[in-house]
Predict the structure.
Amino acid sequence: MPERFITRGFEGKPRATGTTANRVPPGQYLTKDFPVLSAGPTPTTNLRLWSFAIEGLVREKVSWSWADFQKLPAQEFTVDISCVTKWTKLDTRWRGVSIDTLLESVELEPRAGFATAYSDGGYTTNLRLPDLVNGQAFVAYEYDGAPLDPEHGGPARLVVPHLYFWKSAKWVRGLHLTEKETAGFWESLGYHIRGDPWKEERYSGD
Amino acid sequence: MKESTTDDRTLDANAVAGMLETLFGADMTVADSKCAACGREGEVGTLLAYTMAPGVVLRCPACSAVMLRMVETPRGTLVEAKGLAFVRMNR
Amino acid sequence: MATIKAIRDETPRVRSYTLGLPSWTPHRPGQHYDVRLTAADGYSVQRSYSIASGPETDGEIALTVERVVDGEVSPFLHDVAVVGDRIEVRGPIGGYFVWEATLGGPLLLIAGGSGIVPLMAMIRHRAATASRIPTRLLYSSRAPEDIIYANELRDLEARNDGLEVLHTLTRSQPAGWTGYARRIDDAMLAEVRRPLGDAPLVYICGPTPLVEGAANGLVRIGVSAQRIRTERFGPSGK
Ligand SMILES: Cc1cc2nc3c(=O)[nH]c(=O)nc-3n(C[C@H](O)[C@H](O)[C@H](O)COP(=O)(O)OP(=O)(O)OC[C@H]3O[C@@H](n4cnc5c(N)ncnc54)[C@H](O)[C@@H]3O)c2cc1C
Ligand SMILES: [Zn+2]
């Protein structure tokens, strides 16, 4: 098949224009709907058994039940998100707990430099600690004013809007802090270890 | 908690038969396979596929373990099959 | 590369496309083609479409496509593609979800919506090879006007060669309707299976929730999972 065959009349997706153009990272298309991506079946999580933990290189592991988690100071976040499958969605509204707030409950060991977020269903993704702090990341349990839909990661998902959305682990259950970076589910199979959409860090080697 | 191994987005591995055939040069859906996690044996066509994702994931219909993962990148296609105890191309 | 030779309306939301293929290879009933669309800026998408025709038509295949609201590929095929257009395709693909007369029967086919497409290839192949293998099709549609291939199915059934077609209409039924009028359930599956004995060869195709429900139901009423093949098309339209 010729590599550059173009289908007559197929326009693909609209590129961003006008005032929003400078908010859309290179190679991305704007979307209004919220595509659902998943590498496995949506887990059904019993809130009574749900917990969120911070463990690994911390002085003492901390874990919140669902009820405790709801009592933590929550914030509204309005952020733009970019998926490596090339869609960007502007002004998504979330409610949840900043990672800064969560980290106040633990004492990090000096060697801690990276985190692996892990989820129900076995998904993992790796992050550098500097990408999680200073208001850059949060654990969300509401989207657009309603409890986060399971297909979008409910009861709770990590949101790290300044990185490609695969870093924003759905059904997140904890952060495991480490000294060295361990590639997560997609990072271990060709995707970029950090995934900054503005640098178009899609694949390892980009 | 017994988790369901499927949801509304689940497909059969047959849906990615084209990609598998490009990679392996043969129709893989009729090859036999064994799950490394639970030992279930069955044709690759009986596995479950997730395609609305950054890559393609094939899972065991019995225990939901990841059996095969594929990612297409500009530099080539990556395949990981740690979850497959074996595949047998039948004669 | 395929060329669209004809486009036909099947229902208000479903069209069939006859594709001419310069490098045609006979397919096996149940197989699909992958269709790829590429925009001028390099953006491309790919979707699978089952072959509706039997392998008996030389040099061409038919695809039958339901228009999915807000979809990418199916609305393009419905609204933009015209006869004479060239479309990039790859196939035929997949040897798992296939039935040929040589595989025997009795045959139980269960379809939801556009899931009828690969099963129609099997039914057409069965007719073309004058097979008399006992075959029952249970076909779930929303409303009478949504039934794909309605006339052809009626005609094939009228040949009295062992094919029976049972419809269920889940949302609206015409006056005097005698078929099923509910979603597929275990009681319906048991009734439809009974004349075929305990071990029919089963092919189920359609939206994922329907395929899942029917496959689990058949196992519950005692059909061996080994005899059941499924082709999930993905989420059902709202
Ligand atoms: C092996 C295989 C064979 C198939 N054969 C056929 C066939 O013969 N005829 C046919 O019409 N389709 C068939 N399909 C489905 C087809 O591949 C596409 O999924 C479908 O046409 C929707 O694509 P789209 O690009 O139009 O919509 P997308 O852009 O993919 O989806 C748009 C929206 O619709 C939802 N959606 C996705 N798929 C479906 C669906 N199937 N029904 C309802 N909503 C959906 C999505 O979740 C999304 O919200 C087959 C699928 C598989 C895996
Ligand atoms: Zn298994």
